[in-house]
Amino acid sequence: MTYQAFYRVYRPQSFREMSGQTHVKRTLQNALEANKTTHAYLFSGPRGTGKTSTAKIFAKALNCEKAPTKEPCNECPTCLSITEGSHPDVIEFDAASNSRVEEMRDIIEKVRFAPANARFKVYIIDEVHMLSTSAFNALLKTLEEPPPHAVFILATTEPHKLPATIISRCQRFDFKRLSSNDILERMKIILEDIDLPFEEQALKVIAQASAGGMRDALSLLDQVVSFSGDKLTLENALLVSGSISQDVFYDIAFALKNKEIAQVLSSLEELIAEGKDPVRLSEDFITFFRDLLLLQTSSDLTELLELVTSEEKFITLAHEFNADTLYGYIDILAKTQQEMRFSHHTKIYLETALLKMAQVQNSSVVNGHVGGSVDPAVNEKVANLEKMVQQLTLQLQNGISAQGNPAIQQREAPRPRAKTTGYNAPVGRIREVLKGATKQDIHQIKSAWAQTLSQLQKSQAALLAEAEPVAASSSAFVVKFKYDIHCRMVAENREFTTLFSQILSQITGTMYELLCIPENDWISLRQSFIKENGLNQKKETTDHEGALVQENIHEDPFIDDAQEIASEDPLIAEAEKMFGKDFVEVVED
């Protein structure tokens, strides 16, 4: 007899021999035992997870001479002929090569005939998603109401391509990828059966490379066995599968921990020169750092390890890394893996990822304090900077203090604050504007006020309808609001204040900062500022004729609200801007 591949020779012949898929096995066995099987089943899942094998086992259990039974006997003529693929009532149909409606009509015409020598006529349609739309439509009615002796088993790796009308007429079973342990145990049984010694780590490499598919694992095992001599070794498995030794990953991880970037990139270059795929390397790196996390978490998780073994050097390496650092490594590699899918320069992406990983600090944050390998002196500097920032923030909120002068600080203590709406006007910033206020700046802003409002949306301009500029310096201006709620809405909308300043700057040629204050707070702040700075004080002097003359010691650094009534009216301000103040006369009715 010619040689057969492992996945054909060791195909499971009973539910007991199947690896994994417990939810599928238990449901089908209970239905068989209770004689409550239905007429149509849909088996979906990744390749090599046992869909076709389960369909054949189920067909044998349905037609076994000892039925109803949970397991086929594999001894009666019916079971043996189904195993050999020669039973006339179990028809395997490959939809990939017979996708036309003509082939489907041939099945539909023959399905009404009774089985030749079995209880049920079973149709196993593999890769059913490859059928054409016409073939699906032809199958639809038969699938919904088949003869009582017919059972359809549809298998597919892409269930999303099936019409919803087909899926709704079937009992659906989703096959999952097999775990590494399930694949490992199956390979051990095969190697013991052929009496070939093996290294368990070599089987782990094969299981990891198979990505959850039993057929892929057995095909790769068959190849490694053919390559090996008297013993299946780790070196042979790595060479045939294209995987990498755990010692190579150990050296790269150790170099990353010590920030030896040249060593890391040199090792990567050697691996790629050997023909390793950067995408596959990124997957292996993720698995390796995941294994280190498992070793770091608990010593009871060694059975879940895929790339590394529970040797002392790996356990030591795992505890030398902080958990946050390993999480960071996995996150960087996962993002890089996503980016690789859309580029042909996968090597560059992987090199960049390793550089990022080398720059990750092996430290953690616990209760707000930086720990790990961070220099204590750096911690002290950071703490001092945080204190300075808090002090500056407090000063900005309460107004800038006067260079540590206690008398001035005491005098400035009772400053007016907005109380009614919860909005705190920037009193300190406004005081700075008042100190540098000029009549030229406030004239310029008031002249452009109406034009600026006209360029805003109506809803935005409405907020400033009962507001007016009252003081301005070369960098900022103060606007008082009649209604506190309007003041708060404008002050808290940073996008609006920025837009207003930009429009104003296009007209005036100067970028001013907008500061908002309620009217009551403005009156109180203005009076307080005049009193503190001794403004509008007068002294008596004698002129050259001996008469007493009163002179202002200081002038107001800002324009009072009542000083320029004409400028308060937007229409008058616009007229003055267009024709000049000398040509505009305001007549009271």
Please provide a written account of the structure.
This protein is of the alpha/beta class and 589 residues long. The protein folds into four domains: 6-174, P-loop containing nucleotide triphosphate hydrolases (Rossmann fold); 180-241, Helicase, Ruva Protein, domain 3 (Orthogonal Bundle); 246-364, Zinc Finger, Delta Prime, domain 3; 427-536 and 557-579, DnaA, N-terminal domain (GMP Synthetase, Chain A, domain 3, 2-Layer Sandwich), CATH 3.30.300.180. It is 53% helix and 10% strand. The chain has 27 helices and twelve strands. It has helices spanning 6-9, 22-34, 51-63, 77-84, 101-111, 133-144, 164-167, 180-193, 200-209, 214-227, 234-241, 246-257, 261-273, 278-297, 312-320, 323-340, 346-359, 376-398, 406-411, 427-435, 439-454, 458-463, 484-492, 494-508, 519-533, 565-568, 570-579, and strands spanning 40-44, 90-94, 121-126, 150-156, 171-174, 365-366, 369-370, 467-472, 476-481, 513-518, 538-542, 548-552. The strands form four sheets. A five-stranded parallel β-sheet has the order 2-3-4-1-5, with helices on one face. Strands 8-9-10 form a three-stranded mixed β-sheet, sandwiched between helices. Strands 6-7 form a two-stranded antiparallel sheet. Helix 5 (101-111) runs parallel beside helix 6 (133-144). It is elongated. The termini are far apart. The model is unreliable at 363-373, 401-421, 538-555 and 559-568 (pLDDT under 50).
